[in-house]
Design brief:
Number of helices: 9
Structural class: mainly alpha
Strand content: under 5%
Distance between the termini: 50 Å
Shape: globular
């Protein structure tokens, strides 16, 4: 029993380590995952690596190739746009429900004054990331801000759906799809609407925010000769 628990713990640690490498760009989309190198680097055998690859495949972060090992999954321009379409449908609902929670119109753990304060703190972190002009720091802070909004809504199913789609998107995002200061201004507007309990306004601002980024992605794909 103890050996089983230790193995499961090790496989989970390996999974988290590889996932972090992918999200931080250390392992890039399309890159082959060399098991011997990863096993040596992480100090593990191939068994927990295989378990981690299997779990990451389910999350659309890794692609398993028959008789050829595994590689970091690289999404096409069409798939990235499809992910944005999902975000545009789901995240405005999260913003709407977050504003309701702040206003006290929707029961949600961590809502109200507490939730508003937490969201304000995440927004402050985004401001700092923009000041660094580091695309990686900005992407991380952007993910945290969007996730904080849906967490504030208290809708756990929505949280899981949005977290999953956004993680896949970030792992494939090359650069930024919108000027960071433009995004900051839109985040400020989102915060104002949510903090003010303006549910319909928050929903509209979120939809406009994401639709603008999607338009930029479409234009970039056309310039690069993508398959969008």
């Amino acid at each position: 029993m103890n050996a089983t628990i230790e193995y499961e713990d090790l496989a989970e640690k390996v999974y988290r380590s590889i996932k972090t490498m992918i999200l931080e760009g250390e392992l890039e989309p399309g890159e082959k995952l060399r098991q011997e190198e990863l096993a040596l680097r992480l100090g593990v055998s191939r068994t927990p690596l295989a378990a981690a690859f299997s779990k990451l495949e389910k999350e659309m972060l890794v692609e398993l190739l028959p008789r050829r090992g595994a590689r970091v999954r690289a999404l096409s321009s069409r798939e990235l746009l499809d992910l944005y379409d999902i975000r545009i449908r789901l995240e405005p609902l999260g913003a709407y429900e977050a504003a309701q929670a702040v206003a006290g119109d929707r029961p949600a753990p961590g809502g109200g004054v507490e939730g508003k304060a937490r969201l304000e703190g995440v927004l402050a972190a985004y401001r700092m990331a923009v000041a660094t002009e580091s695309p990686l720091a900005i992407k991380r802070a952007d993910y945290d801000f969007h996730q904080a909004i849906v967490e504030l809504s208290g809708n756990e199913i929505l949280q899981r759906l949005i977290r999953s789609s956004n993680i896949v998107f970030i792992s494939n995002q090359r650069g930024l799809f919108k000027d960071a200061r433009t995004s900051l201004a839109e985040h400020e507007a989102l915060f104002a609407a949510i903090a003010g309990g303006e549910a319909e306004r928050a929903e509209a601002v979120m939809e406009e925010h994401l639709s603008g980024a999607r338009s930029n992605l479409t234009a970039r794909a056309a310039l690069e000769g993508g398959d969008a």
